Amino acid sequence: MDKNYLLAFKKNIINLKKILVITYYWPPSGGPGVQRVLKYCKYFPKYGWEPIILTVSDGDFPVLDESLGLEVENFKVFKTKSFSFHKLFNFLNKKSNTPTFQLSSSDKDSLFVRFSRWIRLNIIIPDGRIGWLPGAVKKGNSIISQHKIDAIFSSAPPYTAHLIAKRLSLSNKIPWVADFRDPWTDRFYNYENKRWWLAQKLDKYLEHSVIKNADKCITVSRTISKYYKKPFEVIHNGYDEDDFSNIVPYKNKNIVISYLGTMTKSQNPKRFFEVISKQNIDQIKYQIDLIGNIHPDIQDYIMTQGYDRFVSLKSYVDHQEAIKIMVNSNFLLLVIPNTKKNKGIVTGKLFEYIRSMTKILMIGPQNCDAATIISDTNSGRCFDFEDREGIIKYLNSSSNTEAKNYEKYSRDKLTFKLSELFEEVAQNNDT
Q1: Domains observed in the chain
Q2: What is the overall mean pLDDT for the chain?
C-alpha cells in the first residue's frame, strides 16, 4: 500500500467537501453504469468528499435491482422528472417496456421500430434522455444555492448528463470532471446504423464542447482515451471487496460457463457455441448460462441451431446474485463486440470476473485493452472469434490458474485516485 493511500486513510473527514454527482442511472436502476457511480459515492467520504446526487425520478431503466437500495440509504439524493422519448415510443408501439436493443437492429424489426431508431439516432441528439435536461438544470442550480458545492461530477452515457453538468459548471463557476464510461461519437452502435451527416456533425460538436469545458475528463480504458485530442485520465472500472464476502460455494453437475450482462447482435459467439456443441455430442458436459439481456437474433440463432439443449437463457439477476454465480461457475465468458473500434471496450463486469477467481474465457481481438488486463492479472485467456482449436484446448486444460495483481482495481483504491483529481481541480479553481 503506497504512502499517499495510507495518508488518505487517516484523513480527517469531519469537514467534507461537497461534490454534486450527476447521473441518470441510480438505484433502483441496475446494470454496470450504476455500479461505477454508486461505488465512487460509497467511498468518496473516506477521502474527504460528500456526494450529493442529482438523478431522475422516473427513469427508463433496462433493468431494476432493488437490492442496491440498501447501499444508498445514507446519501443525499435529489430527483427530477424527465420527458421520456422511450416511453413515448412504447406507447405508440403499444409496448409496456423499453426495447433493450432499440439501437441494435434485429431481423424481426418492424417498419415502426426501424423508423423510431432513425428518429432517435438522427433527431434526438445526443440521446433519448435529453428530456431530462431542463428539469435537471433547474434542480441543480437549486442544490448549488442551498449547498456549498466544491466540484461537479457527471457520468455518461447518457451524454445528456454531461450537457447538464456543463451548464451548471459554467453558470456557477464550479470545477467539473466528466466521466466517459463509453466513447460518445465513436460508440459501436454508431457503426451498426447509418446516420445523417448533420446528426453526426451536431453530436460531434456537443462532444467537443463538453471535452473543451470540463476541467478533467476520465474514461475506462487507454484506447478510448486516445480517441480524443485532450488528455484523458484513465480510471478503470473495478470490484468492491465487500460484495465478495459471505459467498456460499455450491457444486455444479456439469461444467458451467456463465455469461452475465447484455449481449448485443455483434457479440454473437457462433464459433464458441459450435465448439461446445461438438464437445456435447454424446452427453452434456458443458452447460452455458446466458444471464441478462440477450439480443433476440442470438436467441433465435440458439434455437434454430439446436443449441438450446445446453444453452440456458436466464433473465437479469440482482448484483449480489450475479457475484454468487461468478464465484460458483467453472468458466466466465466475456465477448467483445465484433465491430469497428472495439479494442477499447472494457466492460464493468470484467473486474468482478477477475476477483471471483473463476477462469475467464474471452472472445475478441488479441491486442485489446480487456485482453491486456486479463493477461496482466493471470485471470484467463483471450481467443479470436474463429479460434475453435484454442477454445477447445483451454476448456479441456486441467491447469488451475489463480488471478493475481488485481488489488489495484478495487473500488476503494480507484475512488482514491478519482478524489485526487477533484482535489486538483478544486485547487486550480481557487487560484
Answers
A1: 11-238+410-430 (3.40.50.2000), 241-407 (3.40.50.2000)
A2: 88
- Provide the percentage of residues in the chain whose pLDDT is more than 90: 64
The secondary structure of 191-258 as a DSSP string is HHS---HHHHHHHHHHHHHHHHH-SEEEES-HHHHTTSSS--EE----B-GGGGTTPPP---SSEEEE
Residue 10 has phi, psi (to 5 degrees) of -90, 0
Its sign, for the CA torsion 292, 293, 295, 296, is positive
Q: How confident is the model at residue 21 (pLDDT cuts 50, 70, 90)?
A: very high
Q: Are strands 149-156 and 380-383 parallel, antiparallel or unpaired?
A: unpaired
The set of cell numbers assigned to 381 is 485467456
Note the pLDDT tens digit of each residue in 82-93: 887 777 776 666
Q: How much of the chain is in helix, strand and coil states, percent to nearest 5? A: 45, 15, 40
DSSP 45-106: GGGTEEEEEEEESS---SSB-GGGGGGSTTSEEEEE----HHHHHHHHTT-SS--TTTTS--
Question: 303-311 — which CB contacts under 8 Å span 24+ positions?
Answer: 305/273, 305/277, 306/277, 307/273, 307/276, 307/277, 309/280, 309/284, 310/276, 310/277, 310/280, 310/284, 310/286, 311/273
Question: Does position 7 have pLDDT exceeding 90, yes or no?
Answer: no
3-state secondary structure of 33: helix
